[in-house]
Every structure is written in C-alpha cells, then in structure tokens.
Amino acid sequence: MKEQDQIFQLYIQHLSGELTPEEESYVEKKLKEDEGFRAVWASFSEGDRARRTEAFARDLSTDGALAEMKHRRISRGGVRRMWYAAAAVVAGLVITGSVLLWPSPKNAPATARLPELPPSAVNLVLANGQTITLNGDSTQTIALQQATLNNNNGTLAYQSTDTSSSTLRVPAGGSYKMVLADGTTVWLNASSSLRFPFSFAGPTRDVYVEGEAFFKVAKDAQHPFIVHTPQTQVRVLGTSFNINTYEPGAERTSLVEGSVQMHSRNGQQLTLKPGLQAGFSGDGFSTVPFDEEEVTAWMSGVYYFHKMPVTAITAAASRFYGIRFQAEEERFAKVTITGVMDRGRLQEFLNDLQTTAGAEIQIENQTVYLR
C-alpha cells in the first residue's frame, strides 16, 4: 500500500475511534516531525468532504485498503468497522477511478432506523415430510423414531441408523453447522440447503447442496465423499473446501486442503489442487488462485466483496442480513463497491450507505430501498 493510502487508512480509523494506542502514538509523532505526513493528514481534515474525496480518488488503491482490512480482521479477531470503496457516483459527484468512502464516526446518530429482522430459524425436513425447527441459540434434544437429534447452539449432531434422506434448510440471514454420521463437518451459509442421509450406506457418501457450504470431510478411502451441486459433482476422500452455487450457471469450488475431482454433467473433469478455485459455467471449468480468508470469512459472519455493482450488493445484503434490499437501477447503474459486511452490524451498514455513498435510505414493509 502506498504511503498516501496508509495515511488515509490511519485517518479513517481516527474518525471511527479505531486507532490502537500504538497507532495513536505513531500518528502524534508523525504530525509533529514529518511535514509531508502532516500535509496529507491536513488535506483529509480540512475543506469540503466531497472535494477531498474527489481529489484523493485518483491515487487511492482500494484493493490495498481491503487487504489491510482483512489483515486487521485476522490479527484482531474480527472486523470492527465497515469501509467501502466505490467508483462513479459519490455523494452526487461524478468521479473517475476508485475511492474509499468515509465511515461515519463512532458516535454518529443513526440516520436509518434498523428494520425488525425476521426470525432465522433453521428447518430440518425429514424424508416423511415432517419439518423440525432448530433454534440456533438454544440446546435441544429431539427423539425421533429412528434418530436422536442434538441441536446445540447452532450445531446439529445426531445418532441414527436411518438411511433415508433429509434436507437441512438455512434461511436468509442465518448460518448453521452440522456433523454428519461419518464425522464430516458441514457449515451452511444463508439461503442454503443440504440433502443428506442420517446414515450412509453403499460404496459412496453422497450429499446434495444448494447455496454455499464449507466441508471438512472425514477420511474414508473405501467410501468416497461426493457433493452434488446443480451442475457438478465434487468427489473427495478427505479434504476441506468451499462450494458456492448462489449464482445460477456460475458455481465455484475453492479447495483449502487435500484434493478433489470435479465432474460436470456434460462429462468434463478437473482435478483441483489446494489454493485454487474452480469455476464452472456452460463453457466448462476454469481455475484461479483464491484468498482463503476472503472465501471462508462468511463462517464467522463476515462477507468481502470486490468492485461489485450496487445492484449485486443489494442481492448479497438481502441474503446476508435476511431482509430485502432494493436499489434504483438508474441511480446506481455505474456505482461499484469494494468492502466488507459484518452480519452483526446492520445498523452501521445502513448508516454508512446513507452518509457516505450518497444513498437515501427508506425502509418500508421490511424492505430497504436505496434511492
């Protein structure tokens, strides 16, 4: 990250009260001793905010800022503020390049009242059609005819000899963890489902997923584990990987460790190595390196996004927070955003969109409108 970017990073932390004691001492020293540092800092703290943002936009590295944000999340154990980068329209001004939008100060008044979040109960649908609601913040023991379920604060484990298939459904705004009969652990993201047998039988261990899930597969060389998605099959023996099928026709499998063999419904095959992400579309497989922290952060309630159009952000936010977001397409047609969502900070997300992205936010009937 360039020096100017680093100073800006420190400045927005200063605005939101997120400087560590060491960073505060560093800033104080630089302001006293470094004329260049002092001049850049003053350019942020003087004059009209929109003019300062526009002037800085030409040199800002949004990818560098996001990388620093991820580093802080890892080192401090969590994202404590949300920073956004956008190209095109900022507070009504047309800007070229990318800019890092300003976070509202820690003590800023709430400018958009938090909507009432719907309950995010996870449902388990049994083979006979019976639906069981699993509360994420309590402990339950549920005795069935051929199974005993143990739901412990968002994690499901069970004992059963039943080989029929059940489906676990996680709603928008939620996430859930479960341990399968073979010891495989599965984390399911919001708006996702997993179809699985209580007890595996036969030569393979087959499950079916839609949405997004992370698998840590128990090793069993005699019984390969196969994940079926709408377009592909992922065949493994023992490994860890993330599957994302949210976008129809564009599935992504990201391998953390081990090895997987991928098979498409049209007969194409691919062996994936750790650190690579396989994408599949109608044209076949493609692979790219991926950032493990970025791909798997959703398991701890964080979602990163790169240069994403606002219309796509509203779809992701709807799924992530469990309420509907809708943006005026013409108003935000050229706006793209880089940043992070924190599932526990919806109010800050709304405030920052309103105060720094130039978005008028209205909440009507559990829908957040960006105008």
Number of domains: 2
* Count of alpha and pi helical runs: 8
CATH architecture of the largest domain: Sandwich
Beta-strand content estimate = 35-45%
- Give the C-alpha Rg: 23 Å
Helix content: 10-25%
Largest sheet: 10 strands, mixed
| Secondary-structure-derived class | alpha+beta
What is the topology?
Blueprint: H1 3-16, H2 21-33, H3 35-45, H4 49-57, H5 62-76, E1 84-90, E2 93-101, E3 122-125, E4 131-134, E5 139-143, E6 147-152, E7 155-160, E8 165-170, E9 176-179, E10 185-188, E11 192-197, E12 205-210, E13 212-216, E14 225-228, E15 232-236, E16 240-244, E17 251-257, E18 260-264, E19 269-272, E20 276-281, E21 284-289, H6 292-296, E22 302-309, H7 310-321, E23 324-327, E24 336-342, H8 346-356, E25 361-364, E26 367-370
Parallel strand pairs: 7-9, 12-14, 23-26
Antiparallel strand pairs: 1-2, 1-24, 3-4, 3-8, 5-6, 6-7, 8-11, 9-10, 10-13, 11-12, 13-16, 14-15, 15-18, 16-17, 17-20, 18-19, 20-21, 22-24, 25-26
What report would you give on this structure?
This protein folds into 2 domains: 3-112 and 323-370, no CATH class; 122-295, Jelly Rolls, CATH 2.60.120.1440. The longest helix has 15 residues, at 62-76. The model is unreliable at 48-60 and 78-111 (pLDDT under 50). The strands form 4 sheets. Strands 5-6-7-9-10-13-16-17-20-21 form a 10-stranded mixed sheet. A 9-stranded mixed sheet has the order 4-3-8-11-12-14-15-18-19, with no helix packed on it. Strands 2-1-24-22 form a 4-stranded antiparallel sheet, with helices on both faces. The chain has 371 residues and is α+β, with helices and mostly antiparallel strands. α1 packs across α3 (35-45) and α2 (21-33) packs across α3 (35-45). It has helices at 3-16, 21-33, 35-45, 49-57, 62-76, 292-296, 310-321, 346-356, and strands at 84-90, 93-101, 122-125, 131-134, 139-143, 147-152, 155-160, 165-170, 176-179, 185-188, 192-197, 205-210, 212-216, 225-228, 232-236, 240-244, 251-257, 260-264, 269-272, 276-281, 284-289, 302-309, 324-327, 336-342, 361-364, 367-370. A hairpin with a 2-residue loop joins β25 and β26 (367-370). It has 8 helices and 26 strands.
